[in-house]
Amino acid sequence: MLFRLFLLSVTLVITMSFTQSINGQELKHMNLHYGTDVKQTLDIYAPSGKESINHPVIIYVHGGGWMRGDKSNVSDKPSFYTNRGYVFISVNYRLHPNATYNDMANDISTAVKWVYDRADQYHIDKKRINLMGHSAGGHLVMLIGTDHSYLQHAGIPVNTVQSIVNLDGPIDLVKFLPKNEQYKEVFGHDRQAWMDASPAANAVNQHLPPMLLVTQNRNSVFDFIEETKKAGNTADIFVTHSLTHREITKLLGSNNNSAEAMSLTKAVEDFLKTYNSM
């Protein structure tokens, strides 16, 4: 009897770790560790029944003000993107006060490295790795995408990232923090430190991946887009007028959308198609 109970518990653990169904979407792998910290985990959603080919991947980074949030906060995005042929990976990372923003960016870079090294195992095309992040997550994916040192430190080529979608994440902290003082707890009070943490400071870097910036305020990203285009990079913008900061990620890919949310979903889908040959 005890042996049967043991076998049942082992079976449940394996099932929870490797194959699970959530709202009809097959979750291939969950709570996989890309590092030793309890927060350094990720979930992999994959197109069902299409394991014979390698797929482009979207690595998604949640928001939460660099202090909270979880990889489970993905709404309808996994089913939406797996139905369109993408592997969708949602990443957890260490948070303040247990980590600095540099630690967080290094966590995301390490997760990208983990995916890159295991691409064949999970039927991923390592030449089509795309980053997407909301709010603080948008800041982090922009930071590692525009500052080559993060991916270099992780030990992968700087051209690994195929494209970036930033869902209303701040890119110029020098402008952002004085209006959002609660986040000075994360970034401190030194203006130079804010500049160092700003993806906007990297706009002049060349050979950056194509970027789509979704924002509620065109002025907050206009200078960055103009400057990075002068450096030879590709950057597009989608300005929302009715969607709240939270709705930008919650309604992306949702079946129950407003007209603007549907336009946002299409803009992101078209952007990703452009750089993923789908």
UniProtKB/TrEMBL annotation:
One of its GO terms (molecular function) is hydrolase activity. Residues 42-220 form the BD-FAE-like domain. InterPro entries: AB_hydrolase_fold, BD-FAE-like_dom, GDXG_lipolytic_enzyme. This is Alpha/beta hydrolase. Keywords: Hydrolase. Gene3D superfamilies: alpha/beta hydrolase. Transmembrane segments: none annotated.
